[in-house]
Design goal:
alpha/beta, seven-stranded mixed β-sheet, globular, Rossmann fold, Class I SAM-dependent methyltransferase
Length: 196
Amino acid sequence: MWDQRYDREEYVYGTAPNDFLVASVGRLRTGGRVLCLGEGEGRNGVWLAGQGFRVTGLDASAVGLAKAHRLAEQAGVEIETRQVDLAQADLGSAEWDAVVSIFCHLPPDLRRRVHAGVVRALRPGGVLVLEAYTPAQLDHGTGGPPHAAMMMDLATLAEELSGLEFEHAVELRREVREGQGHFGLGAVVQVVARKP
């Protein structure tokens, strides 16, 4: 599915980084190792690499990751990518200074496993930056999965990310303008959480 979605000249979600990630980058350790989940075509990882971070992007789509490398080359930066299904991915243990999850929507059982893996994978002091659509997004139809179960809210995230301390946690409606894939008013949840 994702190979087909990304198999076009244009970048489905644009080439600019996510607004919330840009606003949150000051909370990350300068030059740290960052893991980007569901990195797709590379817009967030490439931008982070340009800020001096050492980036590894995970995605199931070989087509998306090839576009990520082209974007990195155009930007004059390097990123590491791994083509992997998150259902089988080992995120490591105390390995990352930050994990970035931007609109990485997964089925509930898998999402719980991945989020538990994120908590294990962060080093002490490491930070998770997450933005996702909430179930209220179904009223907008401006992006995201068609099923509420694949969306997130603060109560669910507080349970799934037990072990992290939330420094920023909010549900809101905001304009999301990211290529053709996310365009218009959206209902989102935003979290910055740190591992003690």
